[in-house]
């Protein structure tokens, strides 16, 4: 089995307690990057036992947004001040690392051992052969993902 880390995104709503606050501490930020990786994410460094964040946040969760304000690439002071002044409710969007195990597949000679990952549906389509495009009506014919992503499909194919 091969181990891989993926990031899950969650949104939690916390109510501020008069004694505990939101019940968690943050570290990191643009001005305090991770010493090993250089990552500038704001992350949860501690969760107070019995506080509002208990059971909702975990150590190492990356804070992406607080009440709609981006916390990506901000100094630690901005993240802390945003949490202190956001009122009694905090809607927190976070990314959480999750380890998954993938079976190691036997690859045929000449094929890569690791499957290619594409950044977008469009990049995927550009790398498929014309034969694949002609036989993939289930994929190309499904417009639900295009509608939800805001992308429109162009059925006019350019032939070279």
TrEMBL record:
Q: Which residues form the PDZ domain?
A: 11-98
Q: Where are the annotated segments for Disordered? A: 97-160
**Composition bias, Basic and acidic residues:** 116-137, 144-160
Q: What InterPro entries does the database record attribute to this sequence? A: PDZ (IPR001478), PDZ_sf (IPR036034)
Q: Give the GO terms filed under biological process for this record.
A: cell-cell adhesion; cell-cell junction organization; establishment of endothelial intestinal barrier; positive regulation of blood-brain barrier permeability; protein localization to cell-cell junction
Coiled-coil blocks = none
- One cellular component (GO) term of this entry: plasma membrane
- Any GO MF annotation of the entry: cell adhesion molecule binding
The family database entries (Pfam families) matched by this protein are listed as:
PDZ
What's the protein name? ZO3 protein
Gene name of this polypeptide? Tjp3_1
């Amino acid at each position: 089995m091969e181990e891989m880390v993926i990031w899950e995104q969650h949104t939690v709503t916390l109510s501020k307690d008069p004694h505990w606050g939101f019940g968690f501490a943050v570290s990191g930020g643009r001005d305090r990057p991770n010493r090993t990786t250089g990552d500038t994410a704001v992350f949860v460094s501690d969760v107070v036992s019995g506080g509002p964040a208990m059971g909702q946040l975990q150590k190492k969760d990356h804070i992406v947004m607080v009440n709609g304000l981006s916390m990506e690439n901000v100094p630690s002071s901005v993240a802390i001040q945003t949490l202190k002044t956001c009122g009694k409710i905090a809607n927190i969007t976070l990314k959480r690392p999750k380890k998954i195990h993938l079976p190691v597949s036997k690859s045929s000679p000449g094929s890569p051992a690791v499957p290619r990952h594409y950044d977008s549906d469009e990049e995927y389509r550009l790398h498929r052969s014309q034969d694949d495009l002609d036989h993939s009506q289930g994929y190309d014919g499904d417009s639900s993902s295009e509608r939800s992503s805001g992308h429109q499909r162009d059925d006019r194919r350019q032939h070279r």
